[in-house]
Structure formats: C-alpha cells, structure tokens
Amino acid sequence: MNYEVCILLCTKKPLKHIEDNIKLINELSKKFGNITVLNFINIQKKKVQINQQIQGYSNIKFFLPNNNRELLDYIKHKKILAIDFLDKELKFFKIRNLINHKNVCLISIIDVAGISNQVIKISKYSLVYDLKTRFIRAIYRFLVLINYLPAIDLYFDPRNDIIKNTNLQIKKRSKIQNIFNQLNITYFKECHRINCRSYDNLILNKKKLEDKKIIFIDSNYKHPDIEKRTGKISDKIKDTYFNNLERVFRDFEKNFNLKVDICLHPSSDIEIYKKFFVNRNLYIHKTSDEIANAKIILFHESSSVTDAIVQKKIIVSLETRLLGTYYYNRIINNKNLLNFFSVDIDRHEDLNKNQLMQKFKNSLKYYDIYIDNYLKSDDILSYVKITKILYDRVKNNNEK
User: Taking a C-beta distance cutoff of 8 angstroms, is the pair 72, 98 a contact?
Assistant: First the structure.
C-alpha cells in the first residue's frame, strides 16, 4: 500500500512502550507489514547506548536517526502513519517540527481513562508548576495554529464527552479552516471513540474472576507528579504514611478475613516497600492480574482502578493529606465521581463493614454510568478498531 506505520518514541527503554502496545502493533502488522519504531533519542541527546536486548519481534524494525538529516532523508519519500508517543514538552518541539510534513499522518491514542488535571484547582503549593504547564500548553497550541508544529490527524479516545466536544469543534472550525488554509485552525482533524484498555481486557479475559484477596494499588508516594507540586516527601512523612496504611490494611484483614497484597506503581522503589511491608506480597507490573483475583480494591488515585470498575469489584478510596493538596484533591475527585466508600487513613477510626457493603451496592449505578461514558465505546477491541480505521483511510486515499 506504500504506507509505513511508525511508532514515535524518544527513550532509552523502547521495549516498555512496545510491550504496553504489543496488541496494537501485532494487529497493525497484519495489515501493513513490519512496524518501524522511530526513536529520536540520539537526536534529542548525544548518542546513548541502549542496553536492552531487542529480540523476539520479527514484525518490528528499529531506526535511530543520529541527526536531523538522517531523519529527513528517511521520511521524505515515504507515506507515514505515525503513532505519537512523544510528550508535548518544550524539549520535543524541535523534533515535532521536523516531522511536520504532509506525508506524515500524526496519530494520537489515549486508551486509559482518568480524571484530567484540568479539573484540579491551582493551589498555592503548586502555583509555579501549574502555571508553567498551562503556559507550555498555550505555546504548543499556538505553534500548531501557525503550522510550525503538526496538528493531530487522527485522535482516538475512550471518553465520550471528549469525543463529542472534539467533533463539535472540528465541525465548527472546518469552514474557517477552508478560508485560512495556511493555518491549523482545527487542532484535531478527525477523532474516533474506542474502548479503554480495561474494557478490552474484560472482553479478552475468559477466566473466572476471583475474590480471594484484597489488594492495594500503590501510586508511589514519591511520584514525580506529587514531588513537582509538593516537594520531596520527608522520611518522617513517609514513615507516618506507611504506618497509617499498615493500620488500615490490618483493619480490613480483620473485618473480611482476607490478606492484603500490594501492587506497586512501576516507578516505586520496591526495596523501600520491602523494608516496611516485610510480611506482605509485593507485585510490580501485575496490577491487572491481581485485580482480577481480588474481592476488594484499596487505592488513592490510579488509572489502573478502571480494571476494577469494569469488573464491578468493591473499591475503597483511601484519603490522605500527607502527600499534599494536589494529590488529596485528585483522591477526592475520584471518590466523588464514582461514589466510593472512603477511609481517611490519617485518622484512627474503626471500619464499618456494613456501611462499606451498602455504599458499594449504591455505587454500582455510578460504575455503569462511568463505564458507558468513559471506558466502553462498543464491543470491538480498540486495537482492531484503530487498525481498521487506518487501513480504510489508506485504502480510500489510494483509490483517489
């Protein structure tokens, strides 16, 4: 078909992105042949050594251009479907300008659902960071407008309100776009709704769901999003936070006669958790599997909780102010959106099992609303739908 599908990355660890998106990559390769991972790490920085073994992917090619000329020579005679995994930070503006060509169709895929930071109020604790983020976003949109940076040709998202609003904006601005064709009036050219990964997993998972444990979904008390807005978490706060968690874990174990295991955030330092939670099972990169095995899910704030929502698990929001105002606000927003039963881990209070179970029953209608509006588009797997839309687009272009 004379089209090449490229995955746009800038990382020393490309395998993590490949593994996270392997279903999409394999589906695309059935229609388009080999998929190219286009890694800009050598352009962004001085040449680096990528230590990971890149083996076992016969349908994937890897290209690391060493400079701008090598990149431009590679793309200038191709028609490229470029799946964009680059951040929209200032340091990537130059690379985004280099790929701003008519023969490059830029594709953005959001396949996780969660509450946007835009609903979090700016606080005095995170004023500088939040204002800087909003300023960079405004500059980015302006540079797209004047065609210095590329617009998104195809956008995929599971959130119904985002898709409806985006399609409305495209319709409103299309007439203006026809008049000012040198500008990118429409930031998104075309958008489609897909399932989030959690709903895809539900469709694919044929095994019986278990109710044999309680799991805590860790969010990493030292997560960069927390430290950027709150500062580094002191050892004193860390110890208080871990002690509070352990107290709550034991309370749940006593009431439900189930053991609490911990699913670590990928960025968490497992050695720190091992020293404190000596007698607990710690899992990393297994959160989805452990949610399927659990009766109750404890969490603060995490996109992984969507697996528990689609599986109709009992979900409990653990509130804490120890990790800063920004994080506390995100916890409360999640709790209110889904009507979760909540426990304030900063306070010593007995768990009321009957209230928890009644709250869970009342929350199921909120689960269904959230699934329909934010997680489920239809019963077509997202990577199948994306591949079909891209294939049909290429086919139609070739027939013109």
Answer: yes
Mean pLDDT of 376-388: 96
Q: How far is CA 350 from CA 296, 332, 343, in A?
A: 17, 20, 9
Q: Which residues of 309-333 are buried (b: 16+ CB within 10 A; e: fewer)?
A: bbbebbbbbbebebbbbbbbbbbeb
* Cα–Cα distances in angstroms (integers) from residue 242 to residues 245, 261, 280, in the given order: 5, 14, 13
Its pTM stands at 0.89
Residue 158 CB partners (closer than 8 Å, separation 6+): 110, 111, 113, 193, 194, 195, 196, 199, 374, 375, 376, 377, 382
- Summarised one tens digit per residue, pLDDT across range 230-265 is 778 899 999 999 999 999 999 999 999 999 999 999
- pLDDT at residue 18 tops 50: yes
The sign of the dihedral angle between the CA atoms of 306, 308, 309, 314 is: negative
Among 258, 263, 259, residue whose Cα is nearest residue 284: 263
pLDDT at 48 over 70: no
